[in-house]
UniProtKB/TrEMBL annotation:
Residues 171-265 form the M23ase beta-sheet core domain. One of its GO terms (molecular function) is metalloendopeptidase activity. InterPro entries: Cell_wall_metabolism_enzyme (IPR050570), Dup_hybrid_motif (IPR011055), M23ase_b-sheet_dom (IPR016047). PANTHER family: L-ALA--D-GLU ENDOPEPTIDASE, PEPTIDASE-RELATED. Keywords: Signal. It holds the Pfam family Peptidase_M23. It comes from Sulfurimonas lithotrophica. This is Peptidoglycan DD-metalloendopeptidase family protein. Transmembrane segments: none annotated.
Length: 276
């Protein structure tokens, strides 16, 4: 394994609980991966962090850390059965500050101060998206390395604090790639298209489900070449980049959700590609 190998001896029952963790320290907004060694009579079920539960698939689990998580030691409860008897043990993650940069944007006031109609539209679209992100397909479509959605310069990294017209409004929830209108956008891995829609903030939007709680998103597009519920392959054309939605110019906004949590898409891809 490429991660840090740790062994936690559970003295209460003299059972060696062995696991491999991709990174012992994790920045807010990033993802870790835990792989559990197979043990006779043991079946891993899920992990729980605070009030969130993440399923363990085939002895591994993704651990996404929210951008808003403060530096701390997080308690991670691992739930499993041993000889069909429910058990749980406690692990720890150290969350450190990602030290993300700030960027200042000047936009039209109509896109900062929304009308009631736009607020309702944006709220409805948010609920629709979160319903998607909070659902989990047990099957994984991923069986090879991820690729980039296009080969282009990154113009804005994940995590930058967004200051609109002098007021802190949000953080940058993805990675922006330079892309003039009409640039072909590729799917980064196999999956199923679960949303194809023009939305208020993200404009022309495509969301792809890669299974087991992993989603990638492609925003501000000008043209769609796939439909909802279509199965897509890595490298397949999804559509063309654009300048739709709440933007200051044409580009591709690429983002990822893991178990419902917004994470750094490039860090997630690097993590998974090391493990494949």
């Amino acid at each position: 394994m490429r991660g840090l190998f740790l062994v936690l001896f559970l003295l209460s029952n003299l059972f060696a609980f062995r696991f491999d963790i991709s990174n012992s320290e994790i920045k807010n907004g990033q993802t870790a991966l835990i792989k559990f060694a197979k043990e006779e009579g043991v079946e891993f079920k899920y992990i729980k962090i605070k009030d969130k539960t993440y399923e363990i698939f085939s002895n591994y689990a993704y651990v996404p850390i929210s951008y808003y998580e403060k530096p701390q030691t997080l308690k991670v409860y691992v739930h499993y059965t041993k000889n069909k008897k429910p058990e749980s043990k406690l692990l720890f993650f150290k969350v450190v500050d990602g030290k993300y940069q700030k960027e200042t944007l000047s936009v039209d006031n109509s896109k900062v101060k929304l009308s009631q109609k736009d607020k309702k539209r944006a709220a409805k679209e948010y609920v629709e998206a979160m319903d998607i992100y909070n659902s989990t397909t047990s099957k994984s479509f991923i069986d090879s390395d991820f690729i980039m959605p296009l080969n282009s310069k990154i113009t804005s990294d994940f995590g930058r604090a967004r200051i609109f017209n002098g007021t802190l409004k949000s953080y940058h929830s993805g990675t922006d790639f330079r892309a003039k209108v009409g640039t072909p956008i590729k799917c980064v891995n196999d999956g199923k298209v679960v949303l194809v829609k023009d939305r208020f903030y993200s404009g022309g939007s495509i969301i792809v489900d890669h299974g087991q709680g992993v989603y990638t998103c492609y925003y501000h597009m000008s043209k769609f070449d796939v439909k909802k519920n279509e199965l897509v392959k890595k490298g397949q054309l999804l559509g063309l980049s654009g300048a739709s939605g709440r933007v200051t110019g044409p580009h591709l906004h690429f983002s990822a959700r893991v178990n419902g949590v917004q994470v750094d898409p490039l860090q997630f891809i690097e993590l998974i590609n090391k493990e494949l």
